Amino acid sequence: MTQEPMTGGCQCGAVRYRVRGELTWPHICHCRMCQKASGNYFMPLANAQKNEFEVTRGQIAWFNSTDVTRRGFCRDCGTPLIFETTKAKHLNITLGSLDRPADIRPSEQFGYEAKMPWFAELDGLAGQPTDDAAQDDPEHFERIRKTNRQHPDHDTKEWPPRQH
């Protein structure tokens, strides 16, 4: 059976990529380096073989985190896309940059020593769908909708679309 390639990219659409083959070791990394690189409490990642990964639009910018690791991101919008150990045969894709992130369920946590101690309490927090907030300030959310520059969750022939 042939697996359909997975696609993804940055928020603004300047960088798009495709992965042929299986993503392995889907995990959530809590290490302090991933926290800083993502500006978040953790970073969901999965391995892709380097020879099965291709950039289909734009160019990935790089930051050398150490002498042997680097982070790939979009130069235009800053979206984190890749964590790479330079001598490895695989790289780590950020799961949130996939077009269908829900398709890849993490199976492990890494860097557990830096995990936020209160994560178990998150399900007890009050929650609200985005649409409910839009009802509180419809003009604000309509302006966001009309000026949204986020690339859709699928490949496009060109981006941004031409204004007619």
UniProtKB/TrEMBL annotation:
| Gene3D superfamilies from the UniProt entry | glutathione-dependent formaldehyde- activating enzyme (gfa) (3.90.1590.10)
Keywords, ordered alphabetically: Lyase, Metal-binding, Zinc
Bias regions of kind Basic and acidic residues — which residues?
137-164
Residue ranges of every copy of the CENP-V/GFA domain listed in the record: 6-113
Q: Give positions of region: Disordered.
A: 123-164
* Keyword Metal-binding appears in the UniProt entry: yes
One Gene Ontology term of the molecular function aspect: carbon-sulfur lyase activity
Domain of life, per the record?
Bacteria
Record keywords: Metal-binding included?
A: yes
Q: Which family does it belong to?
A: Belongs to the Gfa family.
Name the record gives this protein = GFA family protein
